[in-house]
Structure formats: C-alpha cells, structure tokens
Amino acid sequence: MKVLSSHLCGVCFVFMWTIRSTSSLDVSGTHQGIPPAVVKLWASAFGGEMKSIAAKYSGSQLLQKKYKEFEHSVRVEEIDGLKLVKKLAENMEEMFRKKADAMKRLVEAAEEAHLQHEEDANLQYEYFNAVLINEVDEEGNNVELGGDFILQPNDHFNNLSVNLSLSVVQVPTNMYNKDSAIVNGVYWSEALNKVFVDNFERDPSLIWQYFGSAKGFFRQYPGIKWTPDEHGVIAFDCRNRKW
Ligand SMILES: *[C@@H]1O[C@H](CO)[C@@H](O)[C@H](O)[C@H]1NC(C)=O
Ligand SMILES: *[C@@H]1O[C@H](CO)[C@@H](O)[C@H](O)[C@H]1NC(C)=O
Description:
Blueprint: H1 2-28, H2 36-58, H3 60-70, H4 81-116, E1 152-154, E2 160-163, E3 168-170, H5 180-188, H6 192-202, E4 209-212, E5 218-221, E6 223-224
Antiparallel strand pairs: 1-2, 2-6, 3-5, 4-5
Helix pairs in contact: 1-2, 4-6
The protein binds 2-acetamido-2-deoxy-beta-D-glucopyranose (NAG) (2 copies).
C-alpha cells in the first residue's frame, strides 16, 4: 500500500513537472531549453518505469494469478473505498487516542505521587528488582531486593512470563540499587502500579508500559524477570534511550 501510494505521487510529480517545463518554454521562447518533445519522452519513460516498479512491488500480477485460481469460488463485493478509508482513519484515531490517554494518566499519577513524596535520605525500602526477583542465595533464602515474584506465560506478551499485577524496577549495573535517590524514586513511583493495571484493563491492546526516571531507574509493567548479559552486566540505562 505504501509503495503503491508513493509511486502514485511520483507519477503526479512527473506530470506536474512536464506541464511546468513546457509552459515555461512557451513563455520564454528565446531561451535555450529542453524541447518539449524530449521532456515528454522522459516523462513517458519515467512513467513506464514507475508502472513496472509498482507492478513489481505491489504484487498485482501475483494477485491476479491467485485470483484466477479461485475465481469460481469467490464472490465479488463492492467496497466503498472512501468509507473504508474513513473507517480505517477512525480506528487509527481511536487507537492513538487510547494510547495518549493511557500516557496522560501515567504522567498525572507520577506528578501527583512525586509532589506528595518527601525525600528521605535514610529511606529503607524493599522493591522488586527486575534482576533479583526469584533469586536465592546459597542457603536458599531470597536475596535482598528480590523475593518471590509470581510469573506466568502470557501470549499477549510474546509468551514471556509476566506478572500482570505488579511492575518491576530495573537499575543498570553502574548504579547502586540502594542509592537514596533511587530508593526514594522507586518508593513514590509505586503509585504507578495501579495506573498500569488500570490502563491495561481499559485498553487490552496495550503492551509494555514504562516509567524511566532521570535518577536512572526504570519501572516496567507487566513485571518480568531480567537476566544480565554473559558478563553479568545490566547495560540497559533508560536515560540513554532516544525517548
Ligand atoms: C504478582 O506477584 C506478586 C508477588 O509475588 C503476587 O502476590 C501476585 O499474585 C502476582 N500477580 C499475578 C497476577 O500473578
Ligand atoms: C504461545 O504459545 C502457544 C502455546 O504454546 C502457541 O500456540 C502460540 O503460538 C504462542 N504465541 C506466540 C506469540 O509465540
């Protein structure tokens, strides 16, 4: 569809260009210019090229061939193209609106929670660290910032094992995961859990929801287990992402 429309535009462009060159030649008469006949030739060569490219990439011939195979068993139905495009546009608008609403709810909740929070340099707070969940030490005890975190495969998330009621927090290896700024940020941003869940209930087509803090932690919903790379490093740092 995209290829086809861009070629259609290409054709329009050639067309306009042809008209403009001929008319300017007519007006300026004495100027040395490209003879209209040559321009016409180019345009038609260009047009032919466009047509063959469009045929090649739109797969129209293949479609025609396939159609021949099924001709007797298919039914032709008239479709109102304009209506179809309108419907598509409406669906897309609705989809973007829902995503934007979800985002707005998160931003508002984050602002509110941050406002309510009083920074406490000595704050102790155990959170679910994405790498440490379900990890145990030699004695079989949960490690700090870990703990039992129930995960279930979910086909909406590529069959990855997730937890739909909680988010997890990821901190890159080069940051101390109990740093006071991080612990405070993680603490107040717990408020986002219920917004994540609520957003997903309202719009089940949502996939991952995130909150990336300038302090360097990354909250991800649904909760999922992260594993460090082969060197034991968690390189991902939400502050380096383009968004
Ligand atoms: C998510 O994990 C928490 C902590 O283990 C657990 O209490 C909760 O039931 C889990 N949620 C789901 C949907 O499994
Ligand atoms: C998820 O797993 C189910 C059953 O194992 C399979 O039928 C399905 O195709 C998988 N979905 C994805 C997105 O991999």
